[in-house]
Amino acid sequence: MPGRNGGPVEAEGVDLDFELKVLELIQSYRELGFLIADVDPLHRGIKTHPLLKLDKFGLTDSDLTRTCQVGKMMGIGPVPLQEIIRRLTIYYLSPASVEYGHINDPRSRLWIQKRVESNYLSKPFSPEVKKRALQKLIEAELFESFLHRRFVGQKRFSIEGADVLIAMLDFLISQATNLGANEILLGMAHRGRLNVLANIFQKDLQKMLGEFSGHLDANVGDGDVKYHMGFSQRVQTNGKAVHLSLLPNPSHLEAVNSVLMGVAHAKQKLRGDKEKIQIIPVLLHGDAAFSGQGVVYECLNMSELRGYTVGGTIHIIVNNQIGFTTSPSEYRSTSQATDIAKMLEIPIFHVNADEPESALRCILMALNFRHKFKRDIVIDLVGYRRYGHNESDEPSFTQPMMYKVIKDHPRVRSLYQEKLVKEKVVTEDETENIAKGYEAQLETAFEQFQKIRISPMMEGFQDRWEGFRKPAEKEIFQKVETGIQVELLQEIGQKLIQVPDTFHLNAKIEKILEGRQKILDEQGMIDWPFAEALAIASLLWEGHFVRLAGQDSERGTFSQRHSVYHDMENGEKYNPYNDLKKGQGKFEVVNSLLSEYGALGFEFGQSMANPKELMMWEAQYGDFINGAQIIIDQFLVASAYKWNRFSGLVLLLPHGYEGQGPEHSSGRLERFLKACAQNNIQVCNVTTPAQYFHLLRRQILRMFRIPLVIMTPKSLLRNPHAVSPLVDFEKSCFEEVLTDSKFKRKKEHQVKRILFCSGKIFYALAEAREKQQLENIALIRVEQLYPFPKKKLTAVLEAFPNAQEIVWCQEGPQNMEGWEFISQNLPPLLQGKQKLLYAGGAPQASPANSYLHLHLNEQKRIVQQGLGIL
After folding, report:
1. Nearest one of 157, 99, 150 to 362, comparing CA atoms
2. Tens digits of residue pLDDT in 446-504
3. How far apart are CA 287 and CA 335, in angstroms?
């Protein structure tokens, strides 16, 4: 046979040119076979692709009988080309196919190749495994048909068309326990959720049917729709106990992803699961959402980062080949729904949802891959959606051809049952008995649920939440002893500023530490960064754990924190917080990925899993919280009332109008205040380092958990007036309102104007009042805006009986910051003829102007307006 250059190429009787062509063909099947594999249940059979045709490799049909030596490389010895193609067809074109051509790591690539080419994905299972799979398919189908019949037209987001998912999850749980897992965390959207709850989590069918009928207890909270609720249950499999947790999730598809990763990360730390085999996170996705939602990328990106890794998440894409009414060609630009996952160099399995055993093989290989390599893995379960997006939707309006095929397509239960009967694994009578038994359970539950009242709420205070509670109204403002004796604070501070003798500090940091040494020795004034350091260190000293994550949080966006030192000669790191004393708590500080949505969701998940660790997330600038709005709206402010799931997460949002432009000014205080109700969150804009110190300590020392949003400073970090004496840290607690120390008893009658403010503007007002020698204006700082401190503010108003002008002064535009909130909540507290006035910016579309001179002019005007001298 002629070589590629026209002449024969042979070595010891071997046609090297021919062998190279065959080798190229083999490699192409390995890399591209998934494109033509038999993975679509609606269009069965192997497809064709121009890059996999014989002529692409310079081969013809006449070469099929030629013996190929490269067969040895596949472990099958010298065989004809047609045998190699037959083997490749089985390995890569069957109902289960693997995509791994994008993987550069030779270890994981070879691991996959060896298993696939040993026919791993097509090996039969034992009769017991097959029977169990059939049983779960029967249960999945009958559950959906029962709901369809008993609750006509109600939304349930059926799993029909991808019923095999139930068998896959059941098998995953049983096999995971064999690898040492004792907890499975599951996150998913609404499609198939009810079936998963019934047939995987074994949720009480009476409760589920009660949720369908609305036959519920009163006074169970705001609640949520039944296909958003979470659930947890301990079940037995293979004689072993395993805890199953399904996280609550809103309709924002994929929003739960990073939350689940955060829960997994926290639980792995709590268990000391360094190998990350005890707790396995599993995420179920829709095909359109996986390729369309940006948070998917964020979570894939964080999956192998030090501060976020969970040892691999198993992703199962329930690929309906449609997104609501939209075809794949309209909702993604990529060939496959899974293409974004190629960024991780992880295997991607594509499997036909009508082939249960192939699906189970993918699960088993996925578990083994995760166990060995501690990395994510993706299974693309290619199925269809038997009905519309919901059960009242008519899919043929927009997909008439697709739904003609679906209408006549047999269900997977029928297909697999017929197969097992032919194999004599089961009989028709056995399958009928399984079906009758499950139908009887459903009917019994239907009869009984109508006789009882059902509570749909999850239990929020079990396990690690035991001892915590939902706070009563009176507890919100109870004093919490957060002070630290000066001597002990000096000792803690001394530990913080020590570094090993061999460590080479940056000269500027040396100077900072020298300054802190002087403050400790002379009991001087503590600035904001040192106050934060002392708050964290004091909690660690007492045995609490603390985590701070954010963009550049180790150093601090404004070079204010320096929680980790870097050796100037060898680059080694030193964290003084974890070297305070024996038995202390651990401090974890993480420079996060450049993400808000995924990153904040991760920290929220951690805070749900571990209420005993102070979790703080810091935005680089407060404005960047915009990118995490879904997590705020759907989880942070509402989870306690929708799902009875609580969080003590702290948000640190650098905030302040300082002439840096519209994107570096506002932490969007007004948005948080707009979401305040039912004591759901705390919103604070504090003015002194000591207040910040007490606020952070209060957050972990109380026996309830509410998210805390703090508008943290920028310029105040180094403002010489924004300091606190060491003695203020010894004082017992955080003060929601700071009164004006200028006015002692017998002087209150002088005050004609009370000026309320919050945050940085206080210092500008105080300076201008002093300069103008205004003796009749009291400056009152509202340090905690919500929960609104009514009693304290009422006491302030009563303390100045001659004050008629009550002013709220703010830096930002009138339609932003705190004015709208204050204008609704402060007027009911006013006395007699007192009237609430406004001093601040005019309404604007943008949070701030972009030029320093304009900012300075505007702030001067606002201060003068506030003081009444404009």
Report:
1. 99
2. 888 777 766 655 567 788 898 999 898 889 999 999 999 999 999 999 999 999 999 99
3. 12
φ and ψ at 406, to 5 degrees? -65, -40
Q: Which residue has the tokens 């299972």?
A: 125
**Helix or strand (DSSP H, E) at 489:** helix 486-496
Residues in the chain, total:
870
Q: Which two tokens stand for residue 184?
A: 């499975």
- Contact predicate 606/266, CB 8 Å: yes
Q: Could you count the other beta carbons within 10 Å of the beta carbon of residue 849?
A: 18
- Give the ranges where 62-192 is alpha helix by DSSP (H): 81-92, 106-116, 127-150, 164-178
Q: How far is 666 from 819, CA to CA, in rounded Å? A: 14
> Which pair of structure tokens corresponds to residue 389?
């997006």
What's the predicted TM-score (pTM) here? 0.94
Question: In a 3-state reduction of DSSP, which class is residue 292?
Answer: helix
Asked if residue 707 has a cis previous peptide bond (ω within 30° of 0), the answer is: no
Q: Tell me the C-alpha distance between 49 and 534, whole Å.
A: 65
Q: Which two tokens stand for residue 859?
A: 């702030």
Q: Helices in 35-126 by DSSP H: which ranges?
A: 81-92, 106-116
Number of H helices, E strands in the chain: 27, 28
Alpha helices in 334-392 (DSSP H): 356-373
> What φ, ψ does residue 843 adopt, rounded to 5°?
-60, 140
Rg over alpha carbons for the chain, rounded to the nearest Å, is 32
Which of 541, 524, 560, 494 is closest to 728 using CA atoms? 524
Burial class (CB in 10 A: 0-12, 13-18, 19+), 216: middle
Distance of alpha carbon 621 from its chain centroid, rounded?
Answer: 20
DSSP secondary structure letters along 648-661: --EEEEE---SSS-
Asked whether 379 and 100 are in contact (CB, 8 A), the reply is: no
N- to C-terminal Cα separation, the chain = 98
At residue 9, does pLDDT exceed 70? no
Contact 378, 338 (CB under 8 A): yes
Which residues does residue 781 pair with via DSSP β-bridges, in sequence order? 738, 757
Quote the crossing angle between the two packed helices 597-609 and 256-271, to the nearest 10°: 40
Closest CA to 481 of 702, 687, 682: 702
Contact yes or no for 712/656 (Cβ under 8 A): no
> In the 8-state DSSP scheme, what is residue 216?
B
* Per-residue pLDDT, 438: 95
CB 245 within 8 A of CB 232: yes
798, amino acid identity: E
Amino acid identity, position 222: D
Instruction: Give 621-643 pLDDT, tens digit per residue.
Output: 999 999 999 999 999 999 998 88
Do 539 and 581 touch, CB atoms closer than 8 A? no
Query: Residue 507 CB: number of other CB atoms within 10 A?
Result: 8
pLDDT at residue 589, rounded to an integer: 97
Bridge partners, residue 650, by sequence = 616, 708
Edge-to-edge strand ranges of the sheet holding 650-654: 587-591, 545-550, 613-618, 650-654, 708-712, 682-684, 784-786
Beta carbons within 8 Å of 672's beta carbon, 6+ residues apart: 632, 637, 681, 683, 709, 786
- Give CB contacts under 8 A, 24+ apart, made by 391-397: 391/148, 391/153, 391/154, 391/155, 391/156, 391/158, 392/153, 392/155, 395/322, 395/325, 397/325
Closest CA to 72 of 17, 9, 26: 26
653 vs 626: CA distance, rounded Å: 11
pLDDT over 90 (residue 743): no
Cα atoms in the 13 Å half-sphere on the side-chain side of 434: 21
Beta strand spans in 345-483 (E): 348-352, 377-382
> Which tokens hold the place of 815?
């339609």
Q: What residue type is 662 in one-letter code?
A: P
Nearest to 602 by CA among 379, 295, 224, 340: 295
Contacts of 754 (CB under 8 A, 6+ apart): 777, 778, 780, 796, 797, 800, 803, 805, 806, 807
